Hints:
By secondary structure, this protein is of the alpha/beta class. It has two domains: 6-177, HUPs (Rossmann fold); 190-283, Pantoate--beta-alanine Ligase, Chain: A,domain 2 (2-Layer Sandwich). 37% of the residues lie in helices and 19% in strands. The radius of gyration is 19 Å and the shape is globular. The model has no long low-confidence stretch (mean pLDDT 97). Bound molecules: pantoate (PAF). Pantoate binds at residues 32-34, 62, 65, 132, 135-136, 154, 157.
Amino acid sequence: MPARLARVRDVADLRRFVARWRRRGERVAFVPTMGALHAGHVSLMQQARRSARRVVVSIFVNPLQFGPHEDFSRYPRPAARDRRLLEDAGVDLLWQPTVSTIYPPGDRTRVQVEGLSDVLEGASRPGHYTGVATVVMRLLAAVQPDVLWLGQKDAQQALILERMCTDLLLPVQVRRGATVREPDGLALSSRNAYLTPRQRQQAVALSQGLAAGRALLVRGERSAARIVRAVRAEIACYPLMREDYVALVDARTLAPVRAVQGRILLAVAARIGRARLIDNLEWSPR
Ligand code: PAF
């Protein structure tokens, strides 16, 4: 029998719940989401549950992280399904703030994590990570969790938010949950809902590309150019996919590397139909 899911909109109500738990000495974990929940989110919630007595999930489709021609208005919002999923996952509290709660009238404050925000996804989606860092900072200020859970699926986002928490001296531990995949390798994403059956078959190109890259790394290949070429060749086998980027970078700085030495991030992004999909592989020679 799943525990009862409480739901709040206001920050004051949210804080009352969290304060009550804190008085009892209960740890609080937080999973920020934009809804359209899938097994990847559920896996984060389960890990959050193991890391703390209480789990708070937010659902907020953040307008600030969408570009003018992106999918903000058609982003999936299956509210009833999301609630059932949260109940089944044993989440304690769902916070669904309004836009004016997160961005009060007259709002002028932005959080910018320099250097990490304007490469890879940030180069293709200008302003995206300022939108992400700004909203997550506000969500954290309201929830004040002990642990923040983020998905490895957007490794750049996780890195930026880890940096933000360190730089702003936030008393929160940031943890990453592994990417959850379909049996054929496709990384779970709310945006997979945009795919037609034919596009869905071809969307596997990204994970197949990464698999080709991993195979070379495991065999000892250390040339970034050769690894990137192999990933591109694999993606090119799927004619519906339009590559945005394939990049091999330092996993801590996101700077391009020529030869693999320390921990690297192999990141890919492509468009297919109305969807833009990302995936990545973190790998270290040791
Ligand atoms: O990854 C997401 O779903 C969003 O970028 C996040 C972290 C909830 C911020 O809006």
